[in-house]
Amino acid sequence: MSVIVCIGSGNMGVALMKGACSASGTSIFFTDAEAEKAEAAADFLGAQVLKTNIEAAEKGDFIFLAVKPQVMQQVLAEISHTVTKRLKTASHPVLVSMAAGWSIEKIQNAIGAKAPVVRIMPNTPAIINRGMIAYASSPEVPEVKIKELEGILSGAGNVDRLDERYLNAVTGLSGSGPAFVYLFIEALADGGVLAGLPRDKALRYAAQTVMGSASMVQKTGKHPGELKDMVASPGGTTMAGISALESMGFRGSVMKAVEAAWKRAIELG
After folding, report:
1. Where on the phi/psi map is residue 150: left (φ > 0), alpha (ψ -120 to 50), or beta?
2. Can you tell me the distance from the alpha carbon of 85 to that of 11, in angstroms, rounded to the nearest whole number?
3. Which of 53, 57, 168, 204 has its CA 20 to 30 A from that of 258?
4. Which one, of 142, 145, 89, 138, lies nearest residue 115 by Cα?
5. What distance in Å separates the CA atoms of residue 17 and residue 119, rounded to the nearest whole number?
């Protein structure tokens, strides 16, 4: 049985541990500077609570670092001795970090050893098990542990492996992307209200339209441009709307949003 410890019990940590509950043969523990948050998370998932991060580092086969980037240095300093000590035995813990800007090398330097490290970039739909979770691993992580971790993460959504150099771009796209999509859904619904729809109907139709359209991209395998052309009849209502969007630089604005988030992720490193 694999022991999973989650240092931090915020929304994303809880979401990933909720997904991990579906993996067979796992035991889950939380620790948090705010003990009440850890207790609440553990009660919600039927997990257990540890008193300290050092205890978490002693116990975990997978140690999830679900803390904010500005707290990482403190947490890693706290657990470094325990992790380094375990690396000298047969019990090698895998550190799983979701802190934006913290590279594998930076984490290993903070630990003071070539510890097995996996960087992940999940997004908030993981809360409902529909997340996009990209990850990159250090050479020290055995392939058997990679497969085990994929099984743990898959309960929270779609899991994809890639080279670490792409993770900042993933942060800008799928990490920050849900906020951009929510903004679009809100604007789409506002447009419906402007056209006379009741607010509750407009929001329902907007959300379903975005969800259905995304599913069309995934299930048909067609390029979004081709699917767009299937909707846009010559001289019709859709082309009038597309023309209005493009006159305001719609696509360029979305690209700039992803670029800005990507650059911020780099700055955090």
Report:
1. alpha
2. 31
3. 204
4. 138
5. 16
Query: For every one of its 269 residues, what pLDDT tens digit does the chain have, with 9 covering 90 and above?
Result: 789 999 999 999 999 999 998 776 789 999 999 989 999 999 999 999 999 999 999 999 999 999 998 899 999 999 999 999 999 988 889 999 999 889 999 999 999 999 999 999 999 999 999 999 999 999 999 999 999 999 999 999 999 999 999 999 999 999 999 999 999 999 999 999 999 999 999 999 999 999 999 999 999 999 999 999 999 999 999 999 999 999 999 999 999 999 999 999 888 77
- Domains of the chain (ranges; CATH) run 2-167 (3.40.50.720), 175-268 (1.10.3730.10)
Interaxial angle between packed helices 250-268 and 237-247, expressed in degrees from 0 to 180 and rounded to the nearest 10: 50
DSSP-derived secondary structure for 155-174 = TTEEEEE--GGGHHHHIIII
Contact 65, 8 (CB under 8 A): yes
Helix (H, G, I), strand (E, B) or coil at 113: coil
The model's pTM is 0.91
Name residue, tokens 């796992």: 26
Which ranges constitute the DSSP H helices of the chain? 11-20, 35-45, 53-59, 69-87, 104-111, 143-154, 167-170, 177-194, 199-220, 224-231, 237-247, 250-268
Count of C-beta atoms within a 10 Å radius of residue 137:
21
Half-sphere exposure of 103 (CA within 13 A, CB side): 11
Distance CA 155, CA 210 (A): 23
The CA distance from 172 to 78, in Å, is 30
Distance CA 187, CA 202 (A): 10
Distance CA 203, CA 191 (A): 10
